[in-house]
Amino acid sequence: MWLAQRNPLPDTGSQRRWWLVVIALLTLATALLTLTRSAQGPAAQPDAPPSPQAAPQSSANAFTGPQSETPTAAPPAVDRPDTDGAPRTTDFRKIASAAAMAIYTWDTRTATYSEVYSRLRSWWDVLPDGSNPLAVLVQEFEATGVHAGSYGMLAGQQAHRSAAVQDLRCDGELAKVRERPAPWAGLHVCTVSLRVLDQSISGRNTYTTPVSVMMNCPPAVTAPTDHCVMVGFYAAPNRIVY
């Protein structure tokens, strides 16, 4: 009896409660450890280089190239059939209109810059005193927005330009001519307003621009006896005759 009282059999309900407490503590410890690792986050990785991206292609530039800072030398004239020759007439208005359109008409698909220059050169009659040198022709043609360098780039865009007359005023119709008349009889000045159309594979652009044309006609001793000739033109904005 005494032994039975001093060493009672273990209480099964107490053991079960003890194990439940142990399991609960282990579960709580595991949960706390998991939360601690999650808060720390994954190990830092070195910064990855950015993925390469294709450089954006620039949009097409303006139709015509920039005007050169200094006039280029006159290119050599080339021999070619001149299908756009100046009309042989004493009607200086007709000459002015035709010349203005010729100045603003070219096609990179069918003519080189030298050929375009040669066509204009055939219109330009150099005066005996040399007061209208060919350097002025090159300078004023470049004032239309195209020169030898840009013409080559425009050829890659199959660029071409055409023009039509919108308005024509000559001699006394121009205030500047009334203020300062021509120095000799037979010299005429006309300012032509043109509607210009620029086209290329990149698009098209239409605008209005003036050009002043000088013609030498009979009875001037420096002019042909039966028709007028162009002796100059101005396309630079600060030289247009209004």
Structure description:
The structure is a single chain. The longest helix is centred in the N-terminal third of the chain and has 29 residues. The N terminus is likely disordered. The protein has 242 residues and is an alpha+beta fold. The chain is globular and about 45 Å long. It has a domain of 148 residues: Nuclear Transport Factor 2, Chain: A (Roll), CATH 3.10.450.
Order of helices and strands: HHHEHHHEHEEE
| CATH fold call of the domain at 92-239 | Nuclear Transport Factor 2, Chain: A
Assembly state of the chains shown: single chain
- Given helix and strand content, the structural type is alpha+beta
Low-confidence spans:
1-10, 35-72, 77-83
| Main β-sheet, spatial strand arrangement | 1-2-3-4-5
Q: Number of helix segments?
A: 7
Percentage of residues in DSSP E strands? 15-25%
Distance between the termini: 141 Å
Rg over C-alpha atoms, rounded to the nearest angstrom: 44 Å
Q: So what's the overall shape?
A: globular
Overall pLDDT score: 78
Q: Approximately how much helix is present in the residues?
A: 25-40%
Tell me about the biggest sheet?
A: 5 strands, antiparallel
Question: Could you write a compact summary of the structure shown?
Answer:
This protein has 242 residues and is an alpha+beta fold. It has a domain of 148 residues: Nuclear Transport Factor 2, Chain: A (Roll), CATH 3.10.450.
Q: What tags apply to this protein structure?
A:
five-stranded antiparallel β-sheet, 242 residues, single chain, Nuclear Transport Factor 2, Chain: A, alpha+beta
